[in-house]
Amino acid sequence: MVNPTPTPLSLEERNVLLDYGNWRMNGLRCSLDPLRREANVTALTDDKALMMISCEAGAYNTIDLAWIVSRKKPLASRPVRLRLPFNNGQETNELELMNATFDEKSRELVTLAKGRGLSDCGISGALAL
């Protein structure tokens, strides 16, 4: 049975996961300056954590990369992917994680791709974790 309120990450555990995230990012091509990248980790279960790192940035949007990471060594991860249940005429039905946030209360990963400007248009999606 999955604990609906996982044990919070300890400071040591958080630091190990953030170090892992920095190592993970070294092999990826991201245009965002490493000093401007934001990394967040949060407990999903007692065994897994969600790690999100900002990778690209524009006027209104930040593209994030996310992984489900084991909380115990040896650390292992798999990317989080949001896929539409239909083809919307694009090459792929996969959505980028834009301005991603994780709501710990609802346990949802939320993404919001803003259109041309604030309060204009956009696409929002949520994934229950």
TrEMBL record:
The gene is ypfG_2. This is Protein. InterPro entries: DUF1176.
